[in-house]
Amino acid sequence: MFRNQYDTDVTTWSPAGRLHQVEYAMEAVKQGSAAIGLRSKTHVILASVNKATSELSSYQRKLFKVDDHIGIAMAGLTADGRVLSRYMRSECINHKFIYESPLPVGRLVVQVADKAQVCTQRSWKRPYGVGLLVGGLDETGPHLYQNCPSGNYYEYQAFAIGSRSQAAKTYLERKFETFMTCSRDELIRHALFAVKESLQDEELSITNCSVAVLGIGEPFNILDLKSLQGFIDSLEEKKEAEVETVVADSEQAGADAEAPVAEDQGDGPAPMET
Amino acid sequence: MAMFMQQQTDDSSFKKNMLFRGQQDQSSALPSVGFVPAKSPTTHTQYPYVTGSSVLGIKYKDGVLIAADCGGSYGSTLRYKSVERLKAVGKSTVIGASGEISDFQQIMRYLDELTLKDKMWDDGNTLGPKEVHNYLCRVMYNHRNKFDPLWNTLILGGVKNGVKYLGMVSMIGVHFEENHVASGFGNHLARPIFRDEWKEDLSLEEGILLLEKCFRVLLYRDRSAVNKLQVANITAEGITISKPYALRTEWEYKAFQNPTQGVEGSW
Amino acid sequence: MAYWSPYDNNGGTCVAIAGSEYCVIAADTRLSTGYSILTREHTKMCQLSDKCVLASSGFQADIRALQKNLDARHQIYQHQHNKKMSCPAMAQLLSNTLYYKRFFPYYAFNVLGGLDNEGKGCVFTYDAVGSYERVGYSSQGTGQQLLMPVLDNQLQSASPLLLPSKESATPLSESEAVDLIMDIFASATERDIYTGDAVEIVVVNADGIRREVADLRKD
Questions:
Q1: Subunit info (chain C) (predicted)?
Q2: Residue A111: its chain B contacts at CB < 8 A?
């Protein structure tokens, strides 16, 4: 029987220069339902696909307020995500206590990334199995960041993580150039369109998605069901106006679904680079 | 035992004997709990050694002005004559300190580290005067909580995003913002003048003249003030701290030469 | 050589009056040390939530530290419970916070005012180490001795000693309460050197929070 010799603990390198445990953690992110983020010159929108594990259960919350000026959307192990969100909240509170001003988003993201990195270099630890989209506002305007279990972080105009996120990414890639000048409401509609792409066969509804908004003059808030329903309704009208639908997405979504288990000899970029 | 002690007269064997007695005591009567006398609390940091006198600060039309002299007094001795008591913190803030000079220099080490790390983020976010002021309040208050105060009154001014900021922190953490502030003797001698003459739209020249007027009063009335002062000007364009300069003073008034002449009951 | 003390009394007077559906909280804006005035426009009030305002006199650095502590704790509460703290809950938290530091107390004398869970006005009054009581009205600070008997006389509240106990909120209307506060602050300013410059009055009622400032003697 073939057995990978180099994936039993986080700190062991494979001869090809990979850390398999870290890559597995990156895979955990892809197993979780999708989370989406995008920004304009004034606002950041975070959205999530909510999936209940059974007919009888409720779904896991995936959008969290960190402070008035920072929020996160997560994909992967939400339990790990909550630990990180607690850490982020307390960092924000501490910063406000000392300086009476909000913690810059980018600095918080680096702190979280450093925290994640430590888990990739200690034999007795386990990497966080969660990917975060961090939306926030600071002196330099709105920002959207992605945090990985590997300790990598990236800044984006718009991004999606989690299962079938490729479909949403395709939508965002096609539209992101218009985002910067979007109004708040337009940006929310773009977020919902992107969420729609990541839903498998389901119809977009208030039960399977959540949207959070934050921006200049608007502290982080998760849209209540009524206003979310309003946005979903307005989507239908918009769709009739532009009949453009995505064809390529269904293929990409399929490709994404079969999780590429890392092979040692793989010569592509290591999956930890997303 | 007593016999043994009497026989010993020279020093070294006496010490040996004491040691012996100690050992015996420990092993017999009491269980051997090492008694460590309580360390008396540190109090030498609760008063100053070398001090700087008043610092004055005002807002004016285009920014904030802060002034301080260059004296450092060792009690009533004018021990140092070129002490810089105005320092820039980052790109938009100046602090001026009265009180213990060494504590101020320690505070500057804290602030230099703070601003260096802030700069190293290189992300477009910077600490403005408000943030530095709040940080300083925490530092001063935390030291007082440990009964190890930083023996200063700090005045802090700056401009960020077009907003002028002027505030003060004391050695026990009392802090506030104001249009004009003064520490030490300045609170008694300069603030009344500020309250009469300060206005929102003072020009730079008027602002400096007002500070110099107050300084002249301090010079005449506060024995630890010296005639060698610096003025810091903080505007949206940046910070300039002047070279030390002297004010013209007049000591030849009759009343100065013999201030109590003709006053009944004086000598 | 003057002996260093970790405490100072920065003076000031705080008052709160509860009505059946409002609460008025007021404090002067003078900040003093010894015989000197540090500033004439320093607020002693702190809005802790949408239905809860704290007014404190005593040592300003301790007061600010206390307010920041409560703010931080309130933020954590909001993260955990998805709602703002009620005024009675905040009252208990304030007591615990003060009591926790009883061996090196916050030199802060607090009155907490707001609306309770039924929307009725409530006032909580404290000592520096956390003893507290819900009352119909209260005052704290350097002008307390001057104001309290006037409040006792003018507010027409039921005595807290009555059995069976009666509602201790004042039957005065909101505007009558505000007028009374302006008058008693003007009076306290006449005799208390630590009270003056301006009085800041905050009214909490079902419509929200309203703030007004009235001038006092500056000498």
A1: Component of the proteasome complex.
A2: none
**B135 — contact with chain C (CB < 8 Å)?**
no
Distance CA B22, CA B20 (A): 5
Q: Express each pLDDT in C11-24 by its tens digit.
A: 999 999 999 999 99
Inter-chain contact B176–C7, Cβ cutoff 8 Å?
no
The Cα B163–Cα B175 span in angstroms is 19
Distance between CA A205 and CA B179 in Å, rounded? 55
pLDDT digits (tens, 9 = 90+) for B251-267: 998 888 887 888 888 76
Residue pair C68/C56 in contact (Cβ under 8 Å)? The answer is no
Helix H or strand E encompassing A64 = strand A63-67
Q: Is a pLDDT exceeding 90 seen at residue B159?
A: yes
Q: Provide the pLDDT confidence category of residue C38 given band limits of 50, 70 and 90.
A: very high
Q: Are A146 and A94 in contact (CB under 8 A)?
A: no
DSSP class of residue C102 equals T
Q: For residue A107, list chain B residues with Cβ-Cβ distance below 8 A.
A: 121, 123, 125
- At A240, the pLDDT band (50, 70, 90 cuts) reads low
The three-state secondary structure class of C51 is: coil
SS3 C46: strand
Q: Which of B125, B127, B138 sits opposite A138 (nearest CB)?
A: B125
- Can B45 be counted among the known catalytic residues? yes
AA identity, residue A110? V
- Nearest-Cα distance to chain C for A166, in Å, is 32
Question: Mean pLDDT, chain A, as a whole number?
Answer: 89
Contacts of C11 in chain B (CB under 8 A): none
ipTM of this predicted structure: 0.94
